[in-house]
Amino acid sequence: MKIKYYLAFIGIATLASCSKDSDSTPEPDPIVGTSFANKLIEYSPAPGQFINTDLGNQKGANTVVGQKGLVSLGAWGGSIVLGFDHTVINQIGKEDLIIYGNPLPTFSEPGIVWVMQDTNGNGLADDTWYEIAGSEFNKPGYKRNYSVTYTRPANDADPVAWKDSDGKTGTVLTNQYHKQAYFPDMKDKDGKIITEYTIKGSVLPSSNIDMSIPTMITSKPFAWGYADNVSGGDKIDIANAVDQAGNKVDLKGIKFIKIQTGIQANMGWLGELSTEVAGVEDISLIKVLTPVTSTP
Questions:
Q1: Which pLDDT score is estimated for 33?
Q2: Which has the minimum average pLDDT: 86-90, 113-117, 188-192, 279-283?
């Protein structure tokens, strides 16, 4: 959604966007020996204006494997799971991960971060997810064990209806800038088209959003601990991981990371709030370039 913000105020050419699995776009082999997360484990977008285009399908998700690219996760709950070819060590007193997005100084689309160890050693993301407790953890408007069910509309051009675990309902609105289907093009294991699905996770408050001036909507960044939140990349400390009960856990390191759109919000002509991810790196392995000085 920030992409449209760019279009309106900076004049960048239109970008294509989002979708789920694509049989015509095979997942690339893992890129070995990199500071970047280099394995795409899963891409599960929520509905949105960039879904079912190259910014929001499997092809888009592959662009952030082992390098910087860009993928949109759609509305609340949309997520991407990436893996490292090594254990990212929890450096005591230091941040361990940096997540790149495309926020603007006054327009952030915060995503909640989850991390996982490879406890059973099988190389699969099938152990326990731990949420990184950012600055809004347990504040008013934040909620854990939240869920939203999205339903495919009768016509692709119609808004996508949703109902959450609190009984509230709403829609992911369509707009004139993106006319493709907003509901992800997904099929079940039997090849049948999915018409309804439920996403679970935590939700962040929308108190950072200011729509009082419709032509200049802002979404201020939170203090720390989220993806697509501040310019230059969001640094994440594994030491802030919490368990299902909200208690801090002592993780020696992690192998997998999940990023999930954290706010359910429609923002007028800008469309839904949707976290974008451009890549994830292990800070301890980022190479610092030392200037070369010539000798007379």
A1: 62
A2: 188-192
Q: How far is CA 8 from the centre of its chain?
A: 23
What is the pTM (predicted TM-score) of this model? 0.88
How far apart (Å, rounded) are the C-alpha atoms in residues 227 and 113? 7
**DSSP-assigned states of every residue in 216-267:** S-EEPPPSSS-BS-STT-EEE-GGGEE-TTS-B---SEEEEEEEEE----B-
For residues 196 and 151, give the distance between their C-alpha atoms in angstroms, rounded to a whole number.
4
- Encode pLDDT of 50-107 as tens digits: 999 999 999 999 999 999 999 999 999 999 999 999 999 999 999 999 999 999 999 9
Higher-confidence position of 113 and 19: 113
In this prediction, residue 32 has a pLDDT band, given cuts at 50, 70 and 90, of low
SS3 call for 99: strand
Which DSSP letter does residue 107 get? Answer: B
- The CATH number of the structural domain formed by 2-140+208-285 is 2.60.120.260
Nearest to 149 by CA among 165, 131, 126, 172: 165
What is the rounded CA–CA span in Å between residue 134 and residue 131? 9
Query: Radius of gyration of the chain from Cα atoms?
Result: 19
**DSSP secondary structure, 38-82, as one string:** -EEEEEEPPS-TTTTSTTBSHHHHHTTSSS---EE--STT-EEEE
User: Which residues, listed in sequence order, are joined to residue 164 by a DSSP beta bridge?
Assistant: 148
